[in-house]
Amino acid sequence: MSKPIIDKAEVSIDFPDKYYHGSFSHSCRYDVKVDEDGVHITLDQSGEEQRHVAFHLHHHLFSGILESMADQITDKNGLSDLHRDLLNEAAAKLAHAAKR
Fold it and tell me: What is the pTM of this model?
């Protein structure tokens, strides 16, 4: 079930002969699905400038991304208290859901 994007996402893809860049904000939606292979994330913008981005991250890669995020989050990186609280709540929910 898709949800509204409450902040902003930017996507860029750089191929040898083409460059794509797009933003997704409040009027857009996202969807996340998890299966045995990994995490599927889509971003959608409807209306005049329709955009659709989809990517699939296998669980090992997604776990590595989460670990890298954890390594990057320090008191010095400028994360606001609000963003820290949001990340802590989401991480706790993910940890609880991932338990057997």
Answer: 0.86
